[in-house]
Amino acid sequence: MTGFININKASGVSSAREVSAVKKLTGQPCGHMGTLDPMASGVLPVGIGNACRLFDYFLTKRKTYLATFKFGVGYDTLDTTGTLVQSGGAVPSKEQIRNVLPAFVGDIMQVPPKYSAKNVGGKRGYALARAGVDFELQPKKVTIYSIELVSQKSDDEYDFRIECGGGTYIRSLCRDIAQTLTTCAAMSALVRERSGPFALSDSIGSSSLDRENINDYIIPADSVLPFERADVCGTEQKKLLNGLSVPTALGDGTYKIYLEDGQFYGLGVAESSRLKVKTKLC
Fold first, then answer.
1. Where are the domains of the chain?
2. How far, in Å, CA of 85 to CA of 42, rounded?
3. How confident is the model over 21-56, as pLDDT tens digits?
């Protein structure tokens, strides 16, 4: 059993809990393809079995979020689940917000939240922050493809749709937009609508899964990998399965490798007219 289940994570539960639910039903090692904070909901792709080996590939894919920012307040966690540390800040207008959004599109430098899983001297940032340890995180480059002010949700809350690259912290984006507007803000809600090829419209809550229906929701790994097909057979197949490279007429790049019986074997890389297995999935 291998592939993916596109889980619609519920707000208030951890990503690890959702993975554990799938693992219990499948009896296979499982892992998520990019965590969501407990307060967040939405798309959480869970890899089953050897599909977990594709983690690095899916971690870098584009993601789309619907986020709610609450202006005029600040929290230590950068979201409203934490401790209130600022209040009484100005609430900007739609026009003021829209005027600053273009500055946040493209490659930008972003300081991750202290309350995050970032590694600091061998310890998680959130563990140090909870212990009251003073530390600083270095800014890192992230990519924002688009950010749209969707609507005003309440007197001090606005909804934004954000398309970004992997590793982006929406909480940090909220903080930085507010600072540009000389005020403060915190994220009060977050829904991941898309992660790479996985969409919210095609997801399922883990509470709806059981041993009888889970196979109906397993997505074959090759169906969500956007690479061309490379069929191998005979002597070439034997060499590839033994870890050797074989001659190929394919152009340089990554390919989905299929064996002579039609089975999807994994990913291979063609380079300088040679093909070699990169990631074995069966």
1. 3-61+197-222, 63-195, 227-280
2. 28
3. 999 999 999 999 888 989 999 999 999 999 999 988
Any idea which residues carry the catalytic annotation? 37
**CATH annotation of 63-195:** 3.30.2350.10
What is the Cα–Cα distance from 8 to 20, expressed in whole angstroms? 14
Determine the Cα–Cα distance for residues 219 and 232; give it in Å rounded to an integer.
Answer: 24
Domain 3-61+197-222 has what CATH class? Answer: alpha beta
Mean pLDDT of the chain: 94
63-195 shares its CATH topology with 227-280: no
CA–CA gap between residue 104 and residue 67 (Å, rounded): 15
- 129 pLDDT band, cuts 50/70/90, is confident
- Across the beta sheet with 246-247, what order do the strands follow? 228-231, 253-258, 264-271, 274-280, 246-247
Mark out the alpha helices in 33-124 (DSSP H runs).
55-59, 94-100
Query: Dihedrals φ, ψ of 272, to 5°?
Result: 55, 45
The pTM for the full model equals: 0.91
pLDDT band at 253; cut points 50, 70, 90? very high
Looking at residue 262, the DSSP 8-state letter turns out to be: S
What's the CATH code, domain 227-280?
Answer: 2.30.130.10
